[in-house]
Amino acid sequence: MNKRTPSHALRGALGALAIGSVLSTLPATAATPQAPAGPVANTVMTEGYARAVAQFAYAWGWPLVNLHTRRMLYERVPAIGMLGPMPVAPVNQLAMLADYIDPGIRIVAHPNQDVVYGFGALALDKSPVIVQVPDFGERFWMYELADQRTDSFAQVAKIYGTKPGFYLVVGPDWQGQKPTGVEAVLRSPTNTGVIIPRVFMADTPQDREAIQPLLKQIVMYPLSAFDGTVKTIDWQHLPKLPVPASAAAQPPGETRWVVPEHFFAQLKQVLAQVPPLPGEEALYAQFRALISAGEANPAIARVLQDAALHAEKTLVEPLFDLSRNGVRIANGWNRPFNNAAFGTDYLTRLAIAKSNIFENAAQETTYLFREEDGNGQRLTGQRNYTLTFPAGQTPPVSGFWSLTLYDSVHFFAANPINRFSTGTKNPALRYNTDGSLTLYIQHQRPAEDKVGNWLPAPEQAFALTLRAYGPCDALIKGDWTPPPLVASPASNP
């Protein structure tokens, strides 16, 4: 498959709109009236033009429709509880895990087992919410607050020196006053969004116990329930909620959040709810005209459905590959540099939404991806790999780092020691006599003196992600890069 296909398709579709977009944003003069942002109402739209605009609309809107659909799910959650292996909560509340995420999770792809996660769906048009931040002491932690575009809109983390206390999260139109006892007001540019607490936990029984009092204080609730007292929830003992029958029919991989056949109906709702960024007014006008044409003309409606199905296959699915996510850097790795701050970088926003949605901001976490060896061959359990960090050259962080292995659909690969990631959390890591650190990434169990540094791989294709939480400047800027991944044939057992 041509790896340039996704970006070329995006650029081609954007090119079809570019001239109109530029003209619509030129300043008006006394002699030249302001040009309309899009087609004049009821302008006849040809099928060819509709297809060109629809393709780009799909790429632009896919992440926003993804969040729209997630909110719809959480609006149906009746109470805080366990939905299969995942804790869930109604909108404007959150649910926390009490341990690492279950390997069977499918509600969000590309998770890790370095942190204890939480998740809450924001519906700020219904109510502002209070978010509690405990006193984490020296433990590394962060809360991701992302809007419907998957851009971060607040800085709440250890690296920012965030104080313990109560924080008020409000939507774009909220006009109230900060209540007494609240540390700060955090304003989202969209009413729909998410909050995702992440709290580091070492892989030891002692730390699993020590973290529990902190987790109990991570709570979110509507402003109307705020009384200035710390609320607690025991996340270890949540009731089980009935699992919908439709969940069993899901194909392998992440839950399907964007359905092409429903896309343009949902995009119409998104355009009404999410205000455009500066300069996006022309795009909004084009997309609205497109949807209106589809509502009025069955032939255009068929074009929209066909374009959505085609775009899902040719634009979106290729971006699932982590090797197409971000910028290619040294030694065969690649990474984004603007995660959670995409603005109008629609290509990177889409790639991350498809492959690794809900990334933290770049100054909070650096993500480095690897799907191929030094010869461009797909990583596979048919070969053995080593990754050696020279002495003193593990990822430079103020927090922690990890290397996680994923199967072909970006979930954990079953293995005999139930180890899905390694790094700071792993007390079994052993350094070489010269101070370097070698990780062994392979299907076969290595010699016993290397098992502590073993990251088990499946026999089939897999991917690697290196995460660096609290990255130092060298990582943020790209001056530090991971070492090469060295491949060798797997020996016979």
Q: Can you offer a commentary on this structure?
A:
It is a single chain. With 493 residues, the chain is α+β, with helices and mostly antiparallel strands. The protein has 3 domains: 5-70 and 257-320, no CATH class; 79-240, Immunoglobulin-like; 364-489, Jelly Rolls (Sandwich). The protein has 9 helices and 21 strands. The strands form 6 sheets. A 5-stranded antiparallel beta sheet has the order 3-4-10-6-7, with helices on one face. The protein has a 4-stranded mixed beta sheet with strand order 9-8-5-11, with no helix packed on it. The radius of gyration is 24 Å and the shape is globular. The two termini are 34 Å apart.
Q: What can be said about this structure in brief?
A:
This protein has about 500 residues and is α+β, with helices and mostly antiparallel strands. Helices cover about 25% and strands about 20% of the residues.
